[in-house]
Structures are given as structure tokens and as C-alpha cells.
Amino acid sequence: MNKEAVKKDIDAIAGERWFPKESYFGDDIEIYWGKWGVCSEVDDLKSVLMYRPGKEVEKFNANEVRFSDEPIDVELMRNQHDNLAQIYRNHNIEVYYVEQQREDRPNAVFCRDLMFMTPEGAIITRPGMSARRGEERYIAEALAKLGVPILRTINGDGIFEGANAMWVNRKTVVLSTSSRTNKSGYEQVKYELEKMGVDNIIPMQIPYSNIHIDGIMNMASEEIVMIHASQVPYDVCDALKKCGCKILEAPSTTEVRSTFGCNFVALKPGLIVMPEGNPRSQELLENNGIKVITVDVSEIMKGKGAIHCVTAFLKRGQ
């Protein structure tokens, strides 16, 4: 070989010559997915997901699904659900529905438990009770049809229900464990929240006699939180006070436990819709500047849930 031979000059392969769009997922949602996202329990409510009771409530074993033993008036239950949905519509809140559900899952009306909405999309839950497992599939189908981003489905040995988390503000979430949320489910949700900038997770252990946060604590405005004092840990109350919240103690155990006085939904800061039959709780809230709309959900309450339980938030705020 002639060492003096001229070597060929081979052109370098060109680079891609483009750079990715660097942005936060939350900034992309409205552009590519739609107007979805929640980081508050009280910002103006814009859209919700609900499930109107179907065949699953017509015949079931109350003890197996943890319903009241009282007979249910099925048509009245549906009418009460419709009345609540109409209140939402009257306040310019868009109501979407889960169109399909298992016919052996009467608890499916309680949509809040099946998803938890964040500023970047939904977390699909994994119910703790065997009589509810599988309902979440149809929530996922409804969200996918709407175009709501699904960030995670609780997996592995994780258990988590949406009512075991409560937004305080964009940076702060109360996250609880209970018989419906175990440590694995808690950590999976915590991981997702921290990725989107939530840097203040307030841990809460739900007492054995309760299952969800919204049965014992709820926000009526950016400053007002009503609690069932005997069931909410001091550390949680202290953390909420440090966030600027005023704590109102529900005046009646009967109202909290029997007529779901804490299980209300804020339509906007300082305006809530709550179950009928809670006069002492209503008076306390009104004396602290909260406007209250009441609605009869007595048949729905036979499933041991109320207004907040049947309402999954899709969009709050601008």
C-alpha cells in the first residue's frame, strides 16, 4: 500500500439541527388536551365528572357493599342526583358523565373516590374495598374520551382513593392514609404531586372509624376549613393554620356522621352546596361569611356518602 496515498475526506453526518420544546406539562394541557386541572378545593368550579345511578342500585346486598340497610327509592335517588347536577349547571359548571359502569357496583355513584385531579391531569385510583374494585376502569374510559391526561393508575400493592387527598393551595396537599389508602398508594400519589411542584405534603392518618378526609374535613373558602374536631389530628390543624386557614369546628357529631355536614362542595370561594338537614353546621358557616345552598341527597346518603363524594372535579379556576 502506498503510504503517500491521499486519504478520502468523508463528510460528517449532519446533526438533527432541532431542539425540543422545553416546557412544563401543565403549560401544555390547555393547548393540546383541553381546559382541565385542579389545585384547589374552592377555586371557581368549571367542570365535574359524575355517574348517574344505573342498574347497579336496583338490586344489591347492602351489607356486602356497605350501604345502609334502609331500602332505596331508586328513582328518587336518580332525581336527587339530577337535582345536584342541575345546581352545578345553574352556576355555569359543565357536567360530564361516566357513561358505562359495572352492574354490580352500587358505590360507583361516588366518583370522587375513583380519581384525583391535579394541575397536570388525573390520577386513577385503586379502591380499597373489594366491592368497589374495577369501578376505576370506567372512570379512566370517561377521562380518555374527554381528553383528560391520565398521569398514573395506582399500581403494585398500592391502594388509594381520591377522597384521601385534599388541596389546600397549589403547593400544599393534605394526603391521608386509612383503610382505603395504604402507604404504597400514599407514596405513589406523593411522588406525582412532588414532580409537579407540590412541596408541602401534610400527612394525615384517618382514624379507624372513618375512611376519607371529606367526611371529617372540608374547605369552604381559601381561608375557612370546617373540621370534625374529635377526628382530625392536631398536627393537621396546626399545619392548616400555618397556611392561613381559619378552623371551624363542626358543632354537631350527629350532623357530621348522619347527615354529612362536612361533605359539601365549594362552587367558588365562599359559596358551597351542602346536604339538607345540617342547620347547626350551616349556621356556623354562614356566620363566618359562607353562602350556603342546600339540596336533598337523602337517598344518596344511604350509600354512606354525599355531595362531595359523588363529584369528581375536572377543572377549577381559570
UniProtKB/TrEMBL annotation:
<protein>
    <submittedName>
        <fullName>Amidinotransferase</fullName>
    </submittedName>
</protein>
<dbReference type="Pfam" id="PF19420">
    <property type="entry name" value="DDAH_eukar"/>
</dbReference>
<dbReference type="GO" id="GO:0016990">
    <property type="term" value="F:arginine deiminase activity"/>
</dbReference>
<dbReference type="GO" id="GO:0019546">
    <property type="term" value="P:L-arginine deiminase pathway"/>
</dbReference>
